[in-house]
């Protein structure tokens, strides 16, 4: 029987998957929300849904983030839908470097040509983007996958000004915003730009459960309207309607915020366990949010690491082919409890070249 995507490999502590820790999935709370949604909405919870998503959910999103929203089957689906709406095969799109590696096939499936935007340790450097027309720019500016970093405020402002000047559309993947462990998350590009030239995509995959397949697009009312007119939506109605009304109940009842507090405490503890086990041996930043450490170790350690019972994703996967990342690895602290993360770090460090050789 195969039910889930993750495949446990006996003897391996896997820091490769950006998946939630199973014990942190809100099975009991979701079941309460589901029963309540069925009680409140009755048969309306089970029929075809309103094209943009049920208003109890889109209104909750608007109250939290401002603007107009379209409910999707997750952030990946949001990116695929926007790609189908805004591009044609052969168009160029700019991507951050490094960036979320699984966005690449979503974009190339649509026949797009990917080009890295100029970036340094702080992220995209708008002063170095050539003004060549791209259909859009994709980036994860807040608690990024894979670096855990956030684009500094001045860069955010400069990027928005560049986009405005050049008529460049920015797709801001804001999947990790609510997983903040220190202070508050920086303002979204979308919010800073007042929705002008920026489209924001979000997800409940990391903050509630990936299996919901539920996320959203924050956009102008006219873009939301165009999304509702897609043949796919016209034919099938609002995306994941029954799950979306349950999410509306989960959100408006306060269960979402209660759950977030629990998640932030747990993932902060997991982050700290991994960071403190690595720090005596390797320089590592402790991200203020998200799920990932971007560690300066060579990706070609992977086969030896797996023989010694630990796995990760080599850094070059987060760049376009041949463009870098060989000296970095991505470790996810989301899946395993603190003690397992400490043990994983111990296994990894045993294999790491001494500091002077790096
Ligand atoms: C930056 C980023 N965007 C999107 C996704 C996928 O989101 P979803 O499960 O909502 O499709 C992930 C998951 O790893 C991610 O890290």
From TrEMBL:
Listed Pfam families: Aminotran_1_2
Protein name (record): Aminotransferase class I/II
Organism: Paractinoplanes durhamensis
Keyword Metal-binding tagged: no
Annotated keywords: Aminotransferase, Pyridoxal phosphate, Transferase
Record-level Gene Ontology MF annotations: transaminase activity
Cofactor section: pyridoxal 5'-phosphate
The keyword Metal-binding appears for this protein: no
């Amino acid at each position: 029987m195969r039910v889930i995507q993750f495949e446990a490999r006996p003897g391996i502590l896997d820091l490769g998957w950006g998946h939630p820790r199973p014990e942190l999935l809100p099975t009991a709370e979701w079941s309460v929300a589901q029963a309540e949604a069925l009680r409140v909405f009755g048969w309306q919870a089970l029929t075809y849904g309103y094209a943009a998503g049920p208003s109890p959910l889109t209104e909750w999103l608007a109250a939290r983030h401002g603007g107009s929203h379209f409910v999707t089957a997750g952030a990946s689906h949001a990116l695929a839908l926007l790609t189908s709406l805004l591009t044609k095969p052969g168009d160029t799109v700019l991507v951050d470097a490094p960036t979320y590696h699984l966005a690449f096939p979503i974009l190339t499936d649509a026949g797009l040509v990917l080009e890295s935007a100029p970036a340094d340790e702080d992220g995209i450097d708008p002063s170095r983007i050539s003004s060549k027309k791209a259909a859009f720019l994709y980036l994860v500016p807040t608690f990024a996958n894979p670096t855990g970093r956030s684009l500094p405020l001045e860069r955010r402002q400069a990027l928005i000004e560049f986009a405005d000047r050049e008529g460049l559309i920015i797709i801001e993947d804001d999947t990790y915003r609510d997983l903040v462990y220190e202070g508050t998350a920086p303002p979204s590009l979308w919010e800073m730009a007042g929705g002008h030239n920026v489209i924001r995509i979000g997800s409940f995959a990391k903050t509630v459960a990936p299996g919901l397949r539920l996320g959203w697009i924050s956009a102008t009312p006219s873009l939301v309207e165009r999304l509702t007119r897609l043949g796919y939506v016209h034919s099938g109605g609002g995306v994941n309607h029954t799950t979306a009304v349950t999410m509306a109940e989960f959100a408006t009842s306060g269960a979402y915020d209660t759950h977030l507090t629990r998640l932030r405490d747990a993932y902060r503890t997991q982050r700290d366990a991994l960071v403190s086990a690595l720090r005596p041996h390797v320089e590592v930043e402790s991200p203020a949010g998200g799920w990932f450490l971007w560690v300066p170790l060579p990706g070609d350690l992977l086969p030896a690491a797996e023989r010694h019972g630990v796995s990760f994703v080599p850094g070059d996967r987060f760049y376009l082919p041949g463009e870098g990342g060989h000296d970095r690895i991505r470790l996810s602290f989301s899946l395993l409890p603190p003690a397992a993360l400490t043990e994983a770090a111990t296994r990894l460090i045993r294999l790491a070249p001494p500091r002077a050789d790096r």
